[in-house]
Amino acid sequence: MSRSSKFRTNWLVHYSQLVDTWRQRANGREDAEDAMHDTVVGMLENGIGTIDNPRAYMARGTSNRLISRYRHLNVLDFTPLDDVSEAQLPTAPSADDGLRFQQLADALMEALEALPPKCRHVYIKHRLEGCSHTEIANEMGLSRSMVEKYMTRALRHIQQQLQCHAPY
Predict the structure, then answer these.
(1) Domains of the chain and CATH, by start
(2) At how many degrees (to 10) do helices 29-46 and 54-75 cross?
(3) Read out DSSP for 8-70?
(4) Of the candidates 22, 14, 128, which has an alpha carbon nearest to the alpha carbon of residue 66?
(5) DSSP label at 94?
(6) How does pLDDT run across 10-47, given as a tens digit for each residue?
(7) What is the model's pLDDT at position 97?
(8) How far is the C-alpha of 148 from the C-alpha of 136, rounded, in Å?
(9) CA atoms of 94 and 116, how far apart (whole Å)
(10) Is residue 11 exposed (0-12), middle (13-18) or buried (19+ Cβ within 10 Å)?
(11) Do residues 60 and 33 touch, judged by C-beta distance below 8 A?
């Protein structure tokens, strides 16, 4: 019997043992079976002959999938839309929000105007127009390093000027 054909049948022996083990560890039988199934599908798609230890591969793969599923369920807390009261639904922005936005926009304009022209130009080209540092350097006849320095200076200045608008 070749190594490849041996592994093709050998992993089936481990499958039921591991499903029983994971059923005891997982929240439910379905979670363990789903995780094991996903692992086996991955194993079959990648070729069983390339796996030296199918039992270890299935155990680790199932463990990783159960951990991912647990994290996903605990991180992404959601409430069905039908269970949300009307008071909890988002409403139109308040007049206060519009005022805060305008104040922030004005502060940003003031911060940009206070920058030296080359710093302002680099910031606008990079952040607002999406140009790379290399493109800006070529356009302005500067080294890439100098463009990075101008960008760093602009970012520090803007951060300092907009500090009072930060929510924290």
Answers:
(1) 3-75 (no CATH), 95-165 (1.10.10.10)
(2) 130
(3) HHHHHHHHHHHHHHHHHHSSSHHHHHHHHHHHHHHHHHH-GGG-S-HHHHHHHHHHHHHHHHH
(4) 22
(5) P
(6) 666 666 676 666 666 656 667 777 777 787 787 777 77
(7) 74
(8) 10
(9) 36
(10) buried
(11) no
Tokens 């599923």 map to which residue?
Answer: 69
Contacts of range 106-113, beta carbons closer than 8 Å, 24 or more positions apart: 107/161, 107/162, 107/164, 107/165, 108/158, 108/161, 108/162, 110/161, 111/157, 111/158, 111/161, 111/162, 112/158
Contact yes or no for 18/36 (Cβ under 8 A) = yes
Q: Evaluate whether 166 touches 107 at the Cβ level (below 8 Å).
A: no
> How far apart (Å, rounded) are the C-alpha atoms in residues 81 and 116?
50
In this prediction the pTM is: 0.44
pLDDT of residue 78: 64
Burial class (CB in 10 A: 0-12, 13-18, 19+), 148: middle
Q: Supply 5's token pair.
A: 């054909």
Please say whether the beta carbons of 163 and 148 come within 8 A: no
